């Protein structure tokens, strides 16, 4: 059983998708810890409702200490709006994953979070967008890509409508990747990542 920590800053619908998959027996791991860098993040409530230890912590050194003392195998950034230092990413190399609501390398990087991502996609006029799960390195959204899935961008889409459509995909691919990670089925070769059946 892998020990999973989920880092959040907000509502935590992606966290919920992992909780649900664990409870349904689809992930061979347990969520040991949920950490939010925002005290009022609703995701903390979601975790507590499922008896998962959930804490507010906005200090990177202290977060690293907590993850180490719990011997965490996988750190999932699920709407965690802080870029990690290289100190953090090196301590957990190829053990931190992030979900981003666009097809990286489009509409990503510093400042691209929340509705801004979807507004940029709508304004640019792209015909497809989607979601990406990737490993985290010390730069924003640049680590090796693990999984991507597309959604259509329709002519009348607003950023809010597109966000909803992309979230459905996020809630599918994030638990899938977590599950594969826990099964040791994710192989990293440089920038290329392979998921075994
Ligand atoms: C999601 O769109 C995720 O891709 C992005 O932040 C949002 C978090 O949503 N990184 P939630 O808190 O999981 O509902």
Notes on the protein architecture:
35% of the residues lie in helices and 26% in strands. The chain has 197 residues and is an alpha/beta fold. It has a single domain (2-187), classed as 3-Layer(aba) Sandwich (Rossmann fold). The strands form two sheets. The chain has a seven-stranded mixed β-sheet with strand order 3-2-1-4-5-6-7, with helices on one face. A two-stranded antiparallel ribbon has the order 8-9. Helix 1 (13-23) links the parallel strand 1 (2-8) and strand 2. Helix 1 (13-23) packs parallel to helix 6 (159-182) and helix 5 (115-124) packs across helix 6 (159-182). The protein starts with a strand and ends with a strand. 5-O-phosphono-beta-D-ribofuranosylamine is lined by residues 8, 10-14, 43, 78-79, 99-101, 170. One of its GO terms (cellular component) is cytosol.
Highlighted features:
197 residues; alpha/beta; Rossmann fold; 7-stranded mixed β-sheet; two-stranded antiparallel sheet; 6 helices; 9 strands; 26% strand; binds 5-O-phosphono-beta-D-ribofuranosylamine
Stretches with pLDDT under 50, minimum 5 residues: none
Quaternary structure state of the chains depicted: single chain
Major sheet details? 7 strands, mixed
Outline type: globular
Helical content band: 25-40%
Name the bound molecules: 5-O-phosphono-beta-D-ribofuranosylamine
* Arithmetic mean of pLDDT: 97
In the CATH hierarchy, what is the class? Alpha Beta
Give the number of domains.
1
CA(first)-CA(last) distance = 19 Å
Pathway: Purine metabolism; IMP biosynthesis via de novo pathway; N(2)-formyl-N(1)-(5-phospho-D-ribosyl)glycinamide from N(1)-(5-phospho-D-ribosyl)glycinamide (10-formyl THF route): step 1/1
GO molecular function, one term: phosphoribosylglycinamide formyltransferase activity
Organism: Peptostreptococcus russellii
Catalytic activity: N(1)-(5-phospho-beta-D-ribosyl)glycinamide + (6R)-10-formyltetrahydrofolate = N(2)-formyl-N(1)-(5-phospho-beta-D-ribosyl)glycinamide + (6S)-5,6,7,8-tetrahydrofolate + H(+)
